[in-house]
Specification:
The complex is a heterodimer of chains A (128) and B (133).
Chain A: H1 2-6, H2 10-14, H3 24-49, H4 55-62, H5 65-93, H6 97-127
Helix pairs in contact in A: 3-5, 5-6
Chain B: H1 2-6, H2 23-54, H3 56-95, H4 102-132
Helix pairs in contact in B: 2-3, 3-4
The chains are: A mainly alpha (128), B mainly alpha (133).
């Protein structure tokens, strides 16, 4: 009895756990968080400086290499971070397996589409 | 026997209508609430960038839609991101194994609240400055 509980289990030996992802979810949530410690202040600064500005000013500024780069990197990090975070919230509150899987898939699809729209929009402004 | 069942003498705890959440759990659920709110904010971010890429007409539609509540939404976005930012740093510190004791965790929590206040005021002041000029 005590031997079976103290000996390493198969999941420990393989180090990936039941979801076969290991510590990837936890680790990527932290990495995207660290990335946004730099990107979020820059993005906020970009948004604040564009308050009350007209279309041409905003389009030109986001189309610039630096601010366009900031916007694309922020979109990538924030949408990825949002997916990881919302996934945990959904797994916490939706017990029904079918409903949980469906919600997770819809979430992933929506965030991929929105993220692509956002990032490609910035790219278009940069290439305009 | 039946009388004992109808009048319960033992304490019913924690009674949700009178139970005040301690600081740490309150800050924990606030982190999650601000996180979910910020995730919904990505919808507006995507719309804003897509409208800019589409042209002045689409941007005018976006601006008109955001005009009545846009300032308030922006204010909420900044306050939420300031909280999630500060408390997120506390999470990263916890991940290194520091400030995990109740007393140090609460001290770090108060530091987060102070940082949140300073960041929020600074951002709103900066926003008002750019809005006025």
């Amino acid at each position: 009895m005590s031997k079976s509980t103290s000996s390493p289990s198969l999941k420990t030996a393989r180090g990936l756990g039941s979801a076969k992802e290991g510590t990837d979810h936890w680790w990527m949530q932290r990495l995207s968080a660290i990335a946004m410690m730099i990107l979020a202040p820059l993005m906020i600064l970009l948004v604040i400086t564009l308050i009350g500005e007209d279309y041409a000013t905003a389009a030109t500024k986001i189309g610039s290499p630096f601010w366009g780069g900031v916007a694309i990197l922020f979109v990538c990090a924030s949408f990825y971070h949002a997916h990881l975070g919302l996934q945990v919230v959904i797994e916490d509150y939706i017990g029904n397996h079918a409903a949980r899987l469906a919600t997770l898939l819809v979430l992933r699809g929506v965030l991929i589409v929105l993220g692509l729209i956002a990032a490609l929009s910035v790219l278009r402004l940069m290439l305009a | 026997m039946t009388e004992q069942n109808t009048t319960v003498q033992r304490p019913l705890s924690p009674h949700l209508q009178v139970y005040r959440l301690p600081l740490l759990p309150l800050m924990s659920i606030t982190h999650r609430v601000t996180g979910v709110a910020l995730a919904f904010g990505t919808l507006v971010l995507a719309w804003w960038l897509a409208a800019l890429a589409t042209g002045p007409g689409a941007y005018a539609v976006f601006s008109a839609f955001m005009m009545p509540l846009g300032g308030l939404a922006l204010l909420g976005w900044m306050i939420a991101i300031a909280y999630h930012f500060c408390n997120g740093i506390r999470h990263l510190i916890w991940d290194t194994g520091h400030a995990l004791e109740l007393e140090s965790a609460e001290k770090a929590g108060i530091a987060v609240l102070i940082g949140w206040g300073i960041l929020s005021v600074a951002m709103v002041a900066l926003a008002l400055f750019f809005w006025a000029t």
